[in-house]
């Protein structure tokens, strides 16, 4: 792996990396999770969560959060967000979020469609919401012409690869609760956030006062399955009906529960995420000096955002695919996974350097 | 396994069967499906269906239906029904179905919630809809005060374990198309139906004129995943958006596709279903002469409906769980799975006979 | 006006009645209501109900019900039903009603669309719901697969022109409350019901335990406007937001309030309705002996249902229009209004008799 | 009426103006409209638009737009927007509008609730949308993760009292149509816009290429009622069902139609609006030099936006009520009506001047 990309000779573009930097959902299932699926495949079990695997996963979640929590497993992340938010909302109420929030821009309007609610999506440079932005949305409370803000939804880590500190989350929660609002956290990548912060899940989510969390599994080595964690258990009062009506009640639920147990057991979830974070750090280091690559900010979790010369997007993506995050800025996103290797990072960096240096993919 | 239950001595209730008769979703994952999952777990693949497994499954479905079809994989059966129906409906339109239809009574109102449409659920003794029932619902066409029937949705095999013949489906399709309606088929147990009919999928679904099918996987040996099959491919025009908005777009789609490929390959889907059907037949034979058991009708697929003495429901269910289908009639439903064994059937029959004869569960 | 229609000579079909028997919404605005509109048209007033007319109407409603009530004026009857029901429901809940309920068959699916809820519409010969029908719908309470019955909605007087006694309403309310349900009453023709029962509004609606009422105005001499009356005022907690979101918040609300005040003042609402009821009684008497006319039942309020020879429907309707209620039974509905005169009744009866006797409309 | 408010002596605050500057919906019904209501109150007429008044109004609208149009009368403005937009949209599609659009901020989320669609609300200083803002929203077309922009909705005149020129509307329509989108125009105050532009309705709305218009009546001298005008008549294909399901089908429709006929007859609609515009111009002139009043921009239609000293808001509003448009900027909105008189303007200006000069309301 060359240290100085600027000296790489054109024409020597290496083979693409074995693993993709397109998204952490391009990765497969972690071997221990796969093993857990095999092991759960033991004869018959009652459906819809009346099985021992579901009970065990519930217990592991309570250990993790160091308190009683209600858990609703769902098939996917959009579904988990819908179920969690629906438990908090009536249709004339609204959700405050950022304009880059997954619920606002990446779920094809599922929130508006299913909840019937407006999302008030506020501008944010770095994907993070600030307490004062919440204050600015409260003037219409009580006015029948306006939707009534009821939930603030933040994403941790954010869609832009940034991180709220536990202190920042606590301030947001205090702002919400002070105004009679609730705090929802979309944690599709909560593992990467907790791993990066080096704290416990309880410190980041319970002590801060978060009310409901989408606790992601699929992007961290699971095959499918997400979890809605009600840190205020009474908010789950109607969750069973909401989940079924949202078409998110898995019949063979043991297979989701078993995967979560595998992740939580021995902190595999944090090791997976920590590794992905470290690979993103490595990637950032390796591309930092490639002429033509401009890092958008230092990676805080498992993604790297960078701008590339416009001409280079097509050949690089054709060589090893990833997403252009913002077409107008030529901003791209690279994501590392639990199974990304230093060799993958090296191959990816080298190839980018070569193509930018005028090389052509092999 | 005793042949004559009436002579079984009280007090000798055997151990419950190893596998349950509660539902076919109590079964686990078929070994070949599990193998396919393992085999699909090979490194990285682009998400959302841009992977070779999804392409292969699409091809196998086209082989099965002997024509071009559009396929939309979904997480679950309620989701598959929502996606298929939404592609056919505007909110002021209506779905005609039976009053025992899964979409009408077992999905917690998901259809009304997501589609915004009325379900016109018509009485049916045996779970089957008759063409003349459709005619009776057309008088309001064009009247702005009434919802406009647009889709007829039937279930094959039905929730009551009955079967439409291909001829009957063809008549329903003709009735629909003649009136400008479309025919949707909820095939959560389509495999059991095709296996029982002894025809091909194309004969039952394409030649008859069905427009859209929910093609079930979970109840037939899969871990999760269903498929919406658009037999009129142009009806899938908006399916991608509908599926995402319905929170039914699996990110790691290869794992659903691979399972379907395993089922379709070598007709495993029909062998699984045929076996379950045969076990239901065996169960019906074995319980037929037990004093106190009254078979509701001969099983046509993999379920047996019977009435039991009211007092016996609790002890029998406590011994080996299943669902009371109609509390007022003491009608119960027993379902066989791809992995139900004759030994399970024998143990279950024996136990019921013993308990009814005054025995007590061990 | 001939007493013996059977002797009327063919060929002498009279001019149609000046006023129609098509519906009570074919009538115009009562002169006193029109006067109230004129009188409310006095300069400027703040919109959305912050005006003295709205306050006055609220007080008159409280006088009528002899207790504190919350009132939400709406534009129309479908809107009033939506607003009232939405205040009582979460989307996974359900409304129990009859299969002839206006909300179920005459509102183009507005309830399913706006509420997202299922309507469980039960068979009823005479348009009335019986307490035991409610009991039969409670078995799924607590089961996440089933919608959760939360509201029973009855219509008084019913769509079929029948009447619940106060005692029957009280029994329904008791049944509802005993099961944790609420009782909603669609009173588009509540005036006709109260007038027919000869009791007070409080006796029929408050003492019986009804929770929320759609109190109709348009069919009883108003130009537009209905009222949602929350007899349990705390159920109106979110009514302002619900009404606005349902597009039912009238900006110049004083014009609805003033009309209601005119109706309530001096019991004009009951005199109007009582007159319409009496005209229906007269009509029933006059058509009873016409050969070919078969009365469906004696009128209890302001409508008459009768069957006619199939061949006669077209010419009679062409002569003086009305609705065929049930095409298959040749059942028609005739409705009297606050301004129907005995002369109108006579002309209508005569014409029908003539046409049935072989005459031809002039 | 003093010309120089700065010299007005404290303590002499005059009586408030007879008519309010709170909103144009604080005004009553124009005498000619009231007369039309009286005149339509002539006996019976079939409901739901099968009456001669509705036919006549339809014809007058066709005269106005100089082509065939489809008209759907609705009760109110929010309802008209819902009906018009619903005819253009599927739920995974989106509406592009400004962040001050009435549909986005003043309808309590009715659009999201009823349409199930996302509103993409873009920043705009002056309430107007620019063609390049539309271009910026098209990158997600075809991507299943994103809602699909389908309609651009503009308000004319805007919520901020500004005006699009016909040329600007034409450019927006071209941009829309070039991208496969449709152009909806919320014309709650379309009369003020056409009057201000001095062109015809056809020039502003037909020649420019607008597809569907909410044509307002209530704010321009009507009692209630708005109209959805489908300038591309085929877009109205499902309008009847949409309107009924949206609870916006007036039964006694003649009373809305007759009001519109009164407005259109002899261009009363333009005279009303032109007068209101002129009064706003006069008001702007009179307050321009009052110390403490800062005009936000010159009025283009019938509203004046100004900032006032924060301390003065409460006493001035208590003296003669109006709305604070932006609490943080102390920005207020004053609206003139068809019946606002120069004397009202003078009294209002004087009072404001007096209070700002330290006077106290009488």
Strand order of the largest sheet of chain A: 1-7-6-5-4-2-3
User: Low-confidence parts of chain A lasting 5 or more residues at pLDDT below 50?
Assistant: 1-9
* Quaternary organization: homotetramer
Computed over alpha carbons, the radius of gyration of chain A is 21 Å
Distance between the termini of chain A: 17 Å
Biggest interface found: A-B, 50 and 50 residues
Q: What would the CATH topology of the largest domain in chain A be?
A: Aspartate Aminotransferase, domain 2
User: Helical residue percent of chain A?
Assistant: 25-40%
Helix and strand sequence of chain A: HHEHEHHEHEHEHHEEHHHEEHEEH
For the record, the CATH architecture of the largest domain in chain A stands as 3-Layer(aba) Sandwich
Largest sheet of chain A: 7 strands, mixed
The shape of chain A is globular
User: Count of DSSP helices of chain A?
Assistant: 14
Beta-strand residue percentage of chain A: 15-25%
Overall strand count of chain A? 11
What structural class do helix, strand and pairing data of chain A support? alpha/beta
User: CATH superfamily membership of the largest domain in chain A, which one?
Assistant: Type I PLP-dependent aspartate aminotransferase-like (Major domain)
